[in-house]
Amino acid sequence: MSNSIITIIKNCGLVDLETGKVVENVTIAVRDDTIAEVTDRDLSGSRVIDLDGFYIMPGLINVHNNLSLVFPFKLTNPNEPESVTVLRCYRRAYDALLAGVTCLRTVGEIHRVDIHLRNMINAGWIEGPRIIAGGKGLGVTGGHGSSFGQVEADGAEEFRKAARRELALGADHLKIFITGGIAKLEEEFGEMQMTKDEIAAVTSVARSRGTYVAAHIGGSTAIIEAAEAGVTSFEHGYIINREAAKAIKEVSGYLVPTLSVTRSEEWMRANNFEEWTIYKALSIKDRHMESIKLAISEGVTLVCGTDIPPGDLNEGINATVREIEFIKEAGLNELEAIRTATINAAKLCRMENKVGLVKPGYKADLIAVPRNPLKDIRQIERIKFVMKGGEIIRNDIRTKEI
After folding, report:
1. Which of 67, 109, 327, 347 has the greatest number of beta carbons closer than 10 A?
2. What pTM, to 2 d.p., does this model score?
3. 295 Cβ partners below 8 Å, 6+ apart?
4. CA–CA–CA angle 196, 227, 341 (5° rounding)
């Protein structure tokens, strides 16, 4: 380690999300952008950061983001200048990073702006979170995503070509709109818009390129058909029965419940949503929560995603953190809820050997909170230190960097 520039983070507790234990008095050595060592020994380095007893854990991951949407939805313009889209998306991404969300998965963006942002961040041109980009979403003509910049297709062959194009243009995964949802008055939550053959065409393309499909999906029948057609990432799940939960479990799938969508009246009003949209969201609130509780009882793996800007405030709390708290309310304990935004999210994004844990060989994406969050989930509302790839993004702990 003597030949590299080393950052030493000392005087902190480590929240070990693999074992579910907290290790006191830990020292972490970071070489460049990677964790080099985690130990109880004193270490020396080029830079030393004293965390004054704070608890360190991996940066948060939010896997359901549409950074380019405008609120209320009717103001979204898929044909707006690309410069406008990129500035809005970058601001939202950077706000998330400041809040401790070091990694974002996007699921359908106007102008495929997420791909460009990812490339710029990775090249070091701008500072931002890690982005796992979905490019443009795919849906039927006039379907759920038709007003939000999606690629419209009809029939298996059109969907197959559209899927190939998104991956060729740099998407990391594919997003499809299978059912209706909250954003359109005339749609039903469980209404099938894509056929099973159309879904299977997209999943076959994803498999051929070593990736997967994330599906906007509201109802049980659609979930069962999507699982049979090869979908493994199920977004929303407003209405889930036991058979649908079992279908997700049987394909080793992930459920991204986005509970924030139906439980954020204050945020919706602050963003001038129309009354019918607020009513529609709240009308499914209880059924949505019951669906997620049922999925938990069947052992379905949950992952944190908000579907509202990840750096926004929801009831005065960061939206990503609030989603973790909603997931805990659904029945997970503190450890399990935090794993939805760390270990589970990293696995879904195929990054489980890079992010989501604090251990040697992993990227130095770190946050710190005042007390043990495994005893009190609300500690993650109090993030005071953020590091991404070894670079300090925020340090509000009243100690000195040596």
Report:
1. 109
2. 0.97
3. 237, 240, 245, 248, 255, 257, 302
4. 130
